Every structure is written in C-alpha cells, then in structure tokens.
What we know:
The chain is an alpha+beta fold. Helices cover 34% and strands 25% of the residues. It is built from 15 helices and 20 strands. The strands form 5 sheets. It has an 8-stranded antiparallel β-sheet. It has a 5-stranded parallel β-sheet with strand order 3-2-1-4-5. Residues 137, 162, 168-171, 206-209, 212, 214, 238, 241, 281, 283, 292-293, 442 line the site of adenosine-5'-diphosphate.
Amino acid sequence: MxxxxxxxxxxxxxxxxxxxxxVLRASRDLGIPTVSVHSTADNDAMHVKLADESVxxxxxxxxxxxxxxxxxxSAALVTGADAIHPGVGFLSENADFAEIVNAHAITFxxxxxxxxxxxxxxxxxxxxxxxVGLPLVPGSNGEVKNLTDAEKEADRIGYPxxxxxxxxxxxxxxxxxxxxxxxxxxxSSARSEAKAAFGDDKVYLEKYLTNPRHIxxxxxxxxxxxxxHLGERECSxxxxxxxxxEECPSPILSSEQRKxxxxxxxxxxxxxxxxxxxxxxxxxENDEFFFIEMNTRLQVEHPITEMVTGLDLVCEQIKIxxxxxLNFEQQEILFKGHAIExxxxxxxxxxxxxxxxxxxxxxxxxxxxxxxxxxxYQGYKVSPFYDSLISKxxxxxxxxxxxxxxxxxxxxxxxxxxxxxxxxxxxxLVCHKDVMSGNYSIKWLEETFLxxx
Length: 453
Ligand code: ADP
C-alpha cells in the first residue's frame, strides 16, 4: 500500500545493524520507500534484504563504507532519496555530515548541524547546558590544557576526579584519578586515548561521583516551538561505561522527582531551540541530578520508552523532520507499565570476547509483552567487522514485577546457537536480588555482580 500523503518520497538509511532495520520498519509503516546501504561484508544483512533498494557503498572497513560520506551522498542522489536517516553511531552525530546532506537539498533526519556540533563537544555542551539551567557535575571550567592546570582544578574540585575527552563517546577516553599521584598518568593517558580514538586530545575534568545512577530523559521538539519529554530511562547497568540492560521508568524515582527532571529537561530543550529527538543524560546521586551529556540522535534503548508511552519514536521523528507539528501535548502522553531492554551481544558472557560466526539455531521468544529487534536469522553469519549487538529483547509488563518475571521467561526461551551471546549474562542478571530490588548504581555490574559470578 502506498501513502499518498507521505512526507518524504524515499528515505536513505545511512547505517547498518539493528538501527537500520528499525528505521526501515518505521519508514515502511509510514508508507515511505527505503534505500539501504551496505558494505560488502553485509550483503546478507536483513536491512539489505528488506529494503526496497540497497546500494553497496564500499568494503567492510567502516571508514571506507558506513563512514564514507561521498559514497552515501552519491547513493542518495542516484536513488532519488530526499531524506537521510543517520541511525545511531557512525555519522549520526557528525555535524559536517548533516551540513553536507542539507547542502544537497536532502533532509537530514535529526537536529540542526549547530546543535550536533555543540553537543558533540562535551566542553561546549556543558556550557550550553549551564546556560539553559541544567545542573552540572562539578568540574573544570572548560578544557584543561596541561597537567599544572589539571592539578589546580582537581584540588579545587576535590578527588577523585575523572578526566574526559571533549569529543568522547561510547565510554572511551575516560580516566579516573583517585589522588594527585595518579593524576599525571591518568591525564596523559586520557589525552593520548582521546587523540587516538577521536583525533582530538581536548580533555576536561569532572568530579568522579562514587555511586551514581545513570538516568536519562527523552526529549522531543518540533520546528514550531512545541517540546515534550517522554519520561526517563534508567541505564545504570553498564560495563566499561557501556549500557547492557535498561529499564523504563527508573525503579527509584518518585513521581515528584520524575516530574521535576522531565520538566527541567523539556524547558532546557525549548531554550536550546532544539529540533527532533534528543536524550539528556544525567548522573543521579543523593537526590540530585547532574547533566553529563546530550545525545542528538535516537538511542539504542528507545524501545523501552515506546513500550511505556505507546508511541513509535522513529515514525514520530520522521514526521517531525518533514516539518510536521507534534500531534500530542505533554499532558496527553500517558506513561503506563514497565519495560526492560536486554542488549544481546555476540560475545562471551564471562570473558566478554566477541563471538562472530554462523548462527545455526535462532529461536526468539514470543508471547505477550515480548518484542525482539534482531538482525540475525538462521544461517546468518555475524561479522567480525562491526559492533556486537545482534538483538534487543524488549519486554513489557503492567508493573515492574510482571516485567521482570516476563523477562526471565523470555530469556529462558531465547536460543541463539552455536555462537556465544550475552543471553547467559542477562539470565543471571535479571533474577539477581539487587536487580529485583532496583538497588544498583553504575558501579554495580563490575564491582558487585561480575566479582561474584
Ligand atoms: P560517553 O559519551 O562516552 O558515553 P558519558 O559522559 O555519557 O560518556 O559517560 C558515560 C558513563 O561514564 C556514564 O554513564 C557513567 O557511567 C560514567 N561517568 C561519566 N562521567 C562520570 C562522573 N563524573 N562520575 C562518575 N561516572 C561518570
């Protein structure tokens, strides 16, 4: 069926993996044809098989394919796509890419290049957040250029401190110093890691919070001045600063705290003049929220917000990018029930080593409240070239207890063989007493759970 009122003629999805599939499904649901792109390693990927068209944009190496701006723009021009969805990762937070897309009279499905640029530089992002009234983690006033300044700042802030890359992402380029003695080593290794990973050795300092939780707020704005928040997500279960298991809502916020941080986040978004979907990330400790960053794109964990609000965030994102008005107001957004996402990676549950290879058996769970966003199928070969996320298990329940029990049940049903996956880890996680009681912080997985299993 075709949608004659469709907002875009054709959307090119400049990504791979689960997000490419997610955007493809949303576009289809809106009646918009899709163009996928793929490297030669992804010939058999689902996002290629299910798209209306797919263009090969290069060899397996991401720098020559999924990050190849020229190839992506050419693919859009050749296929007549009038919009590009950048997905998550790759070029999704690259302001230059957004600018180039717009310069070709193609709509970049995301915020303005200026907002991407500001939020992509965490020093600038903190300043912008401060200007719109968000509380910051105590830290250096901007960039710290040398060790002497770092020592001064650390003395002022108080140890422990964390040295973070201004261009950081994916949990990389961060080093903790518990004492002045540790600072020199941490400072130089954070800088060289930042330079190697992001081509930019700009770093800054923050107070290292000892036992915070990671709570983030989903915000959404149209081009007509309307802004809403879609509640929070709790993402404290992390390994190496990377999220593994997320829940919506957070198990520990009161309705008053939830309202406070939601309203603060949407007010800040409005003051920023932001457009589209965004996530404001906070650390939360002792009843206080501290801004850490704003992600100017869709998040991997967005489905749990979809389950609880009943909204399709990707469809809404596409509509807003085409100039539509938000068709709901804050008070119309109903938060109902509880949702959990387990990230299923192709990796060993104990060693965390990647486990690429062919899948002989794929049996996803089913039944009420279970959603699988998977990129794999029987006979699919998990490639060693890209990140290891192969499936997301998203579970809904009318309350948290129902949701936890249902997640346990779904994990028991889930079979992916013979490669190693994190299903085994999640099975243990979800019935752990601290997860059941919601009593965990960002340190919990590494310092408690993994030490004792
Ligand atoms: P990235 O962009 O690399 O994901 P973030 O700034 O979002 O970096 O931080 C990622 C994670 O690192 C957080 O969820 C938290 O676990 C940890 N972290 C970051 N800043 C601090 C801090 N000041 N104190 C303690 N932990 C922190």
